[in-house]
Design goal:
The complex is a heterodimer. By secondary structure, chain A is an all-alpha fold. Chain A contains eleven helices and no strands. Chain A starts with a helix and ends with a helix. Classes of the chains: A mainly alpha, B mainly alpha.
Chain lengths: ~220, ~350
Amino acid sequence: MTDQRMDEYRAYYRARLRRYDGNPLYPNMAQAERELCACVEASSSVEDMQRRVLAGGHCVDCGRALLRDQANARVALYSETADAVRAQAPAEVLASVDSVTDAAGLASLASSAQARTDAAVTADELTRLWTQSIASLENIEVWQSAVVPDRWRDQLDEFVADTTRAEREAWAQVQARAAHHLPGWRFDESAAREQRHRRLVPLPDAVIGRRLAQHRAVTRSES
Amino acid sequence: MAIDAAMLDAMLGSFRDLLATTAAQGRRGPDVDEMASALADMEALGRQLSDPGEYSTRLANEGYYQRFTDAYTRAMLAAAGTPGASGGSGDPGGSGAGALPDYATLLANALGAYQQSLDHLRDVEGQDAAITALERILAVGRSGATYPVFLTRLENERLSDVLAGSAAPAREHLVTALEHHRGVVDPARAAESEALLAAYDGLAATSPTGSIDPFAFELRRFRIAWQHAPAIARRDAVVTRVRILLDLVIDWLDAHTTWGPRDQRFRGPSPAVTARRIAMTRECNPGFYAVRAAQFAEAFGPEPWWTRNELTEERRAGRILWSEPRVQLALDAIGACVPLASAPPRLVLRAETFGPDSF
């Protein structure tokens, strides 16, 4: 009976190993499963297996290995996409995973790192809200610089003033909502120019610089 | 003011169910107390706030979810007597305390959890793959297999992959998205959908059962979205501006027609207002057009807006408001639409044929 149970467990751990063995996404997990499998193979009974697996810490090792592989993959991905904000969570995991000693700790490490990073990502995404003003900023540029008969100039100036006021109010609401969720949030122009945001605004650098200057002027103007 | 009760039920229902189930199983202790405390705090916050968005954000960012799930994890591990368990399968090789439970107990616990998941998923749309996998898992579990044999068959048949894969969209959803983007002539989004479907198929092709590794898919989906986002943003930006340029020229021509005062674009509360709108359009639109054409060229390069693929695609998709003869007239008028110019009579004559409030 005991031999049959052991054979069944050996078959199970071999099956687990096959899942990860040779998969380039999971090198650490493959190694951890290999060691767990070897431990089970060497066990003489289920009770012996239980003692060996526990003494070897193999199951926590597997948990650590999975977290490490996933974090390494995410670090590589966010390095490729130059996303320093999203890279915080896997970096946190990699920095602490070796010091965690139980499964609950591993689950907590992953979820807490992700929660902190999610908050940072939300704050970072708010940076791109300024681009909602670009259409109005283009309108303002049109009204201010178009060659038109002089008799329309007052009307166009009125359009500019109305749009400026509306944009300023809209931006104040954006800031209020952002501060409500993330106290202390401030729009950071330098962050807006970073590649992860910049690449999503399909305008040349010179135009973005001009629009940011307009945005700054419009949202800070008093009249 | 509180969060709407139905909304609160939707957001907290699963937590209430987990706590009720845990209590019904006779589990007690500080971890279960912590689960109850975290849920009570979530309920209290729901009574304080009225904006579901703010509520959701605060639940996530202020650690409510994490408090609950951490306590739940500890309670489950304690119940299983597996402080060092690797999770997921509940395999006994990870047991850390006491005697190994007998096969029947282990199997019954696992099957009970899977049955509970199945009962829950039957009420959720779009979970066919997960439901099929759970039914298969339960069938295997009830086939008379021992616990390790049950686990081995789950592993060999990759049934847990299918379950985990259910978090990713089913292939038919990816195909539907691709067909939609092709059907509405949106090449930028269609390209993203194509890449996503290819990634999905690539992962499925390397899987013995055809199911995908959800983590691998998550990585590919992120990368593909990242790769295609600039092209999508660029296309959207071009399309928005091309429409404005086209409208400026058409409005300018129409403001010269005899039917202009009867058209809703110009018609005002008094003849004077109507006349002013028409005069402004006639006199200002060429100046506006010149600035916008310059903005367009500065942003998207020297190729004229009217020869862009995006305009062709939008016309083909029927997303240009104006009829083809109207668009053609506008394209013929571009050269004449220069600051301070009036529309040439030969073009106005063609515009006269359309009439007010027509497209």
